[in-house]
């Protein structure tokens, strides 16, 4: 009789132990699956994920335009300045300094004459950006190309070849 009682006591322990391991395995699968699907969302919020599907072509064209082996034109600079970002709490800002590569010396003169217009445009442009749009190298390349396009609208199409960030502090 004592042998039969020992055999009966062992069976419920095995079932309870097996059920515990099944529950743990299911929980691990659920947590791992959730983390896998949420990583793109979280990385996108931090600006570290890949570009949105519709922005892929823009990012690739901006990268192609950003590749310049040597300076091809005349260089000038925009002194570092601070701009508020489009933040609901109003506590986020960027400090930005630029080195601008222009086509030739007359383009440098046009740039100098339009310096106030260019700074105004930069303040408005940066003020329209959310902090998440300023994070990550892909977003910085897109911002560089957008600044080139906007400055070209002011000084004349094709006069600005490229810009380089000399200061880029996001707070």
Q: Your description of this structure?
A:
This protein is of the alpha+beta class. The chain has 2 domains: about 1-45; about 55-170, Tetrahydropterin Synthase, Chain A, CATH 3.30.479. It contains 5 helices and 3 strands, in the order H-H-E-E-H-H-H-E. The chain has helices at about 1-45, 55-65, 105-115, 115-125, 135-155; strands spanning about 75-85, 95-100, 160-170. Strands 1-2-3 form a 3-stranded antiparallel sheet. A hairpin with an 8-residue loop joins strand 1 (about 75-85) and strand 2 (about 95-100). Helix 2 (about 55-65) packs across helix 5 and helix 4 (about 115-125) packs antiparallel against helix 5.
Q: What amount of the residues lies in strands?
A: 15-25%
User: How many helix segments?
Assistant: 5
SSE class: alpha+beta
Distance between the termini: 77 Å
Q: Mind summarizing the main beta sheet?
A: 3 strands, antiparallel
Based on CA atoms alone, the radius of gyration comes out at 28 Å
Top CATH class of the largest domain: Alpha Beta
Could you list the spans in which at least 5 consecutive residues all have pLDDT below 50? Answer: 51-55
The tally of structural domains comes to 2
- Identify the CATH architecture of the largest domain: 2-Layer Sandwich
Helix percent reads: 55-70%
Number of strands: 3
**Topology-level CATH name of the largest domain:** Tetrahydropterin Synthase, Chain A
Mean pLDDT: 79
